[in-house]
Amino acid sequence: MNTGWGAGCACLACLLSLFSDLARAADDGMEGTVAAVAVPLPPVQFRGITDKRQEIDLPTVLKRAREQSLTVLQAKERTKENKANLSETKSEMLPNVKFDAGVGRTLGNISNIGEIPSSRATLFLNPARSYYNAKAAGYMERAGEAELDSVTRESLLTAALQYYDLLRTQALVQIAEQAVQMAQRLVATTDALHQQGLAIRADVLRANTELADRQQRLLEHQRDYRVASIGLATTLHSDPTVMFVPTDNELRRTNLVAVSEVTEDLTNRALASRPEVSAASQKVAASKQQKKSAEWGQLIPSFGVEHWFGGFTGNRDTFYFVEWNVLDQMGGLLSSRSRAAKARVKQAQLHREQVGDRVAAEVLTARERVLTAGEQITTSQQAVTQAEEALRVSEERLREVVGVLRDSGITVLEVLQAQEALTRARRNFINAVVDYNQAQVGLAHSLGNPSDAMSTQAIPR
Question: Which of 8, 203, 339, 412 has the fewest CB atoms within 10 Å distance of its CB?
Answer without folding.
Answer: 339
